[in-house]
Amino acid sequence: MKHIILASASPRRKEILELADLDFDIMPSDAEEITAKTAPHEVVMELASIKARDIYERSDKQSMVIGADTVVAYHGQVLGKPADEADAKRTLMMLSGQTHEVYTGVCLIEDGEAKTFYEETKVTFYEISEDEIERYIETGEPMDKAGSYGIQGKAAVFIKGIEGDYYNVVGFPIARFLQEIRK
Ligand SMILES: Cc1cn([C@H]2C[C@H](O)[C@@H](COP(=O)(O)OP(=O)(O)OP(=O)(O)O)O2)c(=O)[nH]c1=O
């Protein structure tokens, strides 16, 4: 298999890809993440493509380049990283006691050919009090994460259940990715 370049600055994506014992390097993309799409699965696939294309164009084109993007969706609203702490609080108050979806889009480009897919995971939160939310925001954990939480961190105590791939929530659906590249 070809050498891989992961077009991501996310430490979580790096850790997840390391679980598969693949040989890869990291080149984060700083391309502007703009999309006119509104459906969450389309948003994440387009943004993953933007990141992968940006790095593929700047690479020697000998490697397989992977881009990924994660959002939370709740009743048609697409939630990315919070703008500020007030935004994080609003988001977590809204997700309290409810089930939402997490979408990660993945784009891989090899020999100029792009393949894009997405994976969806449902996550259900217990009811969380305003006080708990404020204490959680003080940890700083929500600020760089889609939906204002990290399932792998202190948001662990909010989780009633999940349906689908855990690693998809953390930012990269590693098992599905391996299935796709073996096709
Ligand atoms: C829902 C959820 C998201 N996240 C993270 C995964 C992603 O890193 C982040 C969503 O932001 P993204 O824009 O998908 O990625 P990024 O900016 O961190 O990295 P890059 O664009 O360089 O690849 O939210 C968690 O770590 N845990 C969670 O439970």
Your description of this structure?
This protein is an alpha/beta fold. It has a single domain, classed as Alpha-Beta Complex (Maf protein). The protein has helices spanning 11-18, 40-58, 85-95, 130-138, 166-170, 174-182, and strands spanning 4-6, 24-26, 64-74, 77-79, 99-110, 113-125, 159-163. Strands 1, 2, 3, 4, 5, 6 and 7 form a 7-stranded mixed beta sheet that branches. Strand 3 (64-74) and strand 4 (77-79) form a beta hairpin. Helix 3 (85-95) crosses helix 4 (130-138). 38% of the residues are buried. The mean pLDDT is 97. The protein binds thymidine-5'-triphosphate. Pfam families: Maf. The record marks 12, 70, 152 as: Important for substrate specificity. Belongs to the Maf family. YhdE subfamily. This is dTTP/UTP pyrophosphatase.
Give keywords.
183 residues; alpha/beta; Maf protein; 7-stranded mixed β-sheet; 6 helices; binds thymidine-5'-triphosphate
Question: Would you summarize the structure shown here?
Answer:
Helices cover 33% and strands 27% of the residues.
**How many domains would you count in the coordinates?**
1
Distance between the termini: 12 Å
CATH topology: Maf protein
Q: Helix/strand/pairing class, anyone?
A: alpha/beta
| Text of the CATH class | Alpha Beta
* Rg estimate, integer Å: 16 Å
